[in-house]
Design goal:
The complex is a heterotetramer, with two copies of chain A (165 residues) and two copies of chain B (458 residues). Chain A is of the alpha+beta class. Chain A has two domains: 43 residues, no CATH class; 80 residues, RNA polymerase II/Efflux pump adaptor protein, barrel-sandwich hybrid domain (OB fold (Dihydrolipoamide Acetyltransferase, E2P), Beta Barrel), CATH 2.40.50. Chain A is built from three helices and ten strands, in the order ααββαββββββββ. In chain A, strands 3-10-8-5 form a four-stranded antiparallel beta sheet, with no helix packed on it. A four-stranded antiparallel beta sheet of chain A has the order 7-6-4-9, with no helix packed on it. Chain A starts with a helix and ends with a strand. Chain B has 458 residues and is an alpha+beta fold. Chain B folds into three domains: 100 residues, Rossmann fold; 61 residues, ATP-grasp fold, A domain (Dna Ligase, domain 1); 249 residues, 2-Layer Sandwich (D-amino Acid Aminotransferase, Chain A, domain 1). Chain B has 15 helices and 22 strands. Chain B is globular, with a radius of gyration of 23 Å. Classes of the chains: A alpha+beta (165), B alpha+beta (458). At the B-C interface, helix 1, strand 18, strand 19 and helix 12 of B face helix 1, strand 18, strand 19 and helix 12 of C.
């Protein structure tokens, strides 16, 4: 707004703001709300508790001491891989059954160390009797195979890891 | 009986099906979109598979993904819930062609009753009353006048290709009928390139009354009495109850029998709902069949004591319904209200967000069906229903008192809901006296709400 | 009818009474100690007064404070709930002398039935079976043998001044009877300076069965069938159900009629419970009367469809009960489990703290009575009951299935509760077959729980 | 207003803000809300969300848009007195009806400015037809009378304020 520019009070003194923000972090403040005349400075910081409420722990039911069978939900996407940073995942574009090779006894499409380009078929996901060939979609080297023959695969589940390049 | 069922839905109805299965000792496979990952109800299923991104067209509506999940989940049957694929005859057919039972009617019955023209033809044969009107298109003014004379004014002129109110006219006498015919034909030609129109009796301020049906594969078709769902906004039901508080006993019984005749004529099985409109003289007219479980099924469960979702599963597994018509009671009065994450003050705009505080009603007479909890985030992707509050008491008066106190106890913070509106409705004279119709909310209630609210207007 | 009632209690039963009043259009005045300030249920009352600090002896048990609150709150009646002052005849008398109706029996009836000796005398006159035994003290060995021959072995030797099991002996034959008499007399003399002993039939592994009573001021006294509360730990009930799953129909009816005879003989009015123990041959023996509403009243409400708390208020206001005995049904099966903030793994030690996460069960067949919510803090001052989960289904088998799935849905974080124990109980063969008695939990179940738990032991 | 005059309308005195923020941390304050004229400084620290969950706002039901009668719970102890720091409260030791004097038309036991000692009777609380004389229990001067004749008084409710001395 034009009015804001007018005169000696230059909107928002960045030096002060910078200082306030660093004070907030330093002293663990979550909120500042300053008003004077037509000015209002309001700042909020990292409400970690709200975050917990926003996304309740996935499958928290699993932690219940159920006497019955424990719901065996498949693990959500990211596997607890020690090599989590060793490349990008190739994720399943559909839900179905994983096959590493064309048939039993055949060589797998790819192994750790295989070079792939975007068109390289890395596996088959069977869905409704249809065998979907899954392309790598990236250039690189397979660093990890995350699924086994016959595994039930859900949408978005990582199947391989690829070091790009 | 099935050992394992896939629940092809989300939210409260997915939880409802999981609950039914758990009580029957059947394992469940849930599916979910990325938007629903981590929802608590998924942890109650035995397995859960992500089938796609948030958009329903890329997940809950993708037949091949659901069938794939059913295959890897190794289920014998799929429960479709309501909405999504529940009335998709093609989906039902695909399921069965994959040797997976679709928990619902045969796709043939679904198609027959899903098509309005064929449904009306079956109704006619089964002597179920239809809204009186012309036999097909109107060819001349004189024919129109003759039809109107026969069925009585006011009459509704409708475009045969119509929709959304276009090409519709109400006529109260021969003069307005003649003028209306021309105008409707022109409008219809313009909108649909089809000037064909027909006549129907215009039902003023109708009530919406529907009959719950259960039919098995052994020739049994029963009604579970009626539900009055007249309180609607833009055809979205807000309040549903059983029994109807206004229909005379003889009409209720007739209506329920008519519904049974209709589903028998269509060889319909499983649960379904036959919808009627009822005029101010208690004449009822068949409208359509909903070939699935409905949102408001709990009110019928409460007055009859019959678990509808369990019954659906038993019927699909080939079991015989274990009762006779005369053994289905209608005890007390049940009322359901829909708690939606909407802001009635802002034109019922959806109100997504996180529930920061939640106090649920409880105690005698209260049932609550919901998948939400304090900390749950309602996303913008699906419908706004966050729960159904259902009360059941020996009399309608007591049920309304219970509804009022339950709504007063109910506190949701962080999002806007229909709770304040429902509190208001529960205290309206017109509602308490049963003097409402499908136009009531938009015609009477909402206009009063644009004014600043009076305080304490019970 | 009363316009305004004071609720002289706290927690779930205070909320239960507030709910009943709201549904009846009666205003409520709540009282609270400083420990309960800010509890959500207090905001549902029309007024709420702090009457003292956390200690019950300085607040909920202080008659003069409660009467003062009733006076400034301008109420016509006081509902005492259960516990605290609910069975204090003096409190009932003070209320009435201040022209405030005490919602419960007359203090005379309360005194008559509150005293065990006079209650037994009334039972004898009303031909209600008592545990067989000697008529008063035993004067000689030969008399003891004669009594034991008459009532049959095993017999229990009890000190007349006794308590806490001291001076008690079980005798299975004349020899052990003679030895036991001497030992018991010596022990009783030592403990109570009174060597008098008497004999009673020893009931092995008894079941606890109680009958819900409602009586008005117009000469009507009805039973609302029985509850089986055999699953107890140290006389604390954990699971209650109606009807009893083991009593033959003829015995149930006899037992219920006996309870009605007893309360009629005592001129008892309002709600009450007549407690019996039942032996393995289905013989029943009167134990005592609880002259108040009980924690487990909801199971009777569910099978009969009668609101007990509303009925209490109506009876106190002088209304006639609006039904006959033959019109009180016993439909389906209802089971209540008590959710306590206790740690069964630590000897059921109380587990105060804040509920950080809460997922309540819901859906068909589930009622939940509780004053707690996510964020509620359970203090160390009062009992550990945080909620009652009650299920109602057409059959006992279905009710147990519903109970299992509801307990599985139930998640409480931040405190320890009895939920895991109740899950275990709900899946026990002995419970499902009705083969439990008042000693079962301590005799059979708890010993298995000291061992590391086997997984998946459904 | 005095505040308005200060300075050249310079928004927000950083020195004061800095001091306040460090005082907050030092003394474990979770919130500061200062108002003067058109100025308002509001600051929050620490896990406010958790705090809300631990102690939900008292009578939060009151904020509900209830169409029925709003629960008229009496206000919890501390009244929103402008002179909150002007002395200590004399709290009611019981629940009952407040009387400032022995009878209608009589002089009140104490008024603003009255000197009290621990034995001075300051009012009567009637409970069950018994008139309980309430002693001050402190030495000082009455600065505020917080109840009116006939008021319903709950346990712990402040009746007077006394400046000690």
């Amino acid at each position: 707004m034009a009015a804001e520019k007018s005169g000696s009070h230059e909107p928002f003194d960045m030096a002060k703001l910078r200082e306030l923000i660093s004070l907030m972090e330093q002293h663990g403040l979550t909120e500042i709300d300053l008003r004077q005349g037509d000015q209002r400075w309001q700042m909020r910081r990292g409400p970690t508790e709200v975050m917990q409420m926003v996304s309740p722990p996935a499958y928290s039911g699993v932690s219940l001491p159920l006497p019955g069978p424990i719901p065996a939900s498949p693990a959500p996407t990211a596997p607890a891989s020690a090599k989590a940073d060793d490349g990008v995942p190739i994720k399943s574009p559909t839900v179905g059954t994983f096959y590493a090779a064309t048939g039993p006894g055949d060589e797998p499409f790819v192994k750790v160390g295989s070079r792939v380009n975007p068109e390289t078929v890395v596996c088959i996901i069977e869905a409704m009797k249809v065998f979907n060939q899954i392309p790598a979609e990236v250039n690189g080297t397979i660093t990890e195979v995350l699924a086994k023959n016959g595994d039930a695969i859900e949408y978005g589940q990582p199947l391989f890891r690829v070091r790009l390049g | 009986m099935f050992q394992r069922i896939l629940v092809a839905n989300r939210g409260e109805i997915a939880l409802r099906v999981i609950r039914a299965c758990k009580e029957m000792g059947i394992e469940t496979v849930a599916i979910f979109s990325e938007a629903d990952r981590g929802a608590y109800y998924l942890s109650l299923a035995d397995e859960a598979y992500c089938i796609g991104p948030a958009a329903a067209t890329d997940s809950y509506l993708l037949i091949n993904r659901i069938i794939s999940a059913a295959e890897i989940g190794n289920v014998q049957a799929i429960h479709p819930g309501y909405g999504f694929l529940s009335e998709n005859a093609h989906f039902a057919e695909v399921c069965r062609s994959c040797d997976i039972e679709f928990i619902g009617p045969s796709h043939e019955a679904m198609q027959k009753l899903g098509d309005k023209v064929s449904a009306k033809e079956i109704a006619r044969q089964a002597k179920v009353p239809l809204v009186p009107g012309s036999d097909g298109l109107i060819n001349s003014e004189s024919e129109a006048v003759a039809v109107a004379d026969r069925i009585g004014y006011p009459v509704l002129i409708k475009a045969t290709a119509g929709g959304g109110g276009k090409g519709m006219r109400v006529a109260t006498d021969p003069a307005s009928l003649q003028a209306g015919l021309k105008a409707a034909a022109v409008e219809a030609e313009k909108a649909f390139k089809n000037s064909g129109v027909y006549l129907e009796k215009y039902i003023e301020r109708p009530r919406h009354v529907e009959v719950q049906i259960l039919a098995d594969h052994h020739g049994n078709a029963f009604h579970l009495w009626e539900r009055d769902c007249s309180l609607q906004r833009r055809h979205q039901k807000l309040v549903e109850e059983s029994p109807s508080s206004t229909l005379p006993k003889s009409v209720r019984e007739e209506l329920c029998k008519a519904a049974v005749r209709l589903v028998k004529a269509a060889d319909y099985t499983n649960a379904g709902t036959v919808e009627f409109i009822v005029d101010q003289d208690d004449n009822y007219y068949f409208i359509e069949v909903n070939a699935r479980i409905q949102v408001e099924h709990p009110v019928s469960e409460l007055v009859t004591g019959i678990d509808l979702v369990q019954s659906q599963i038993r019927v699909s597994a080939g079991e015989k319904l274990p009762f006779k018509q005369s053994e289905i009671p209608c005890r007390g009065a049940a009322i359901e209200v829909r708690i939606n994450a909407e802001d009635p003050a802002q034109g019922f705009r959806g109100s997504p967000g996180t529930i920061t505080q939640l106090r649920l009603p409880g105690g005698p007479g209260v049932r609550f069906d919901s998948h939400v909890y304090q900390g749950y985030t309602i996303g913008p992707n699906y419908d706004s229903l966050i729960g159904k509050l259902i009360v059941h008491r020996p009399t309608r008066e007591a049920a309304i008192a219970c509804l009022q106190r339950a709504l007063d106890e109910f506190m949701v913070e962080g999002i806007k809901t229909t709770i304040p509106l429902l509190r208001k409705i529960s205290r309206l004279e017109a509602f308490r006296n049963g003097q409402v119709d499908t136009t009531f909310i938009e015609r009477v209630l909402l206009p009063t709400m644009t004014q600043p609210e009076r305080e304490h207007d019970r």
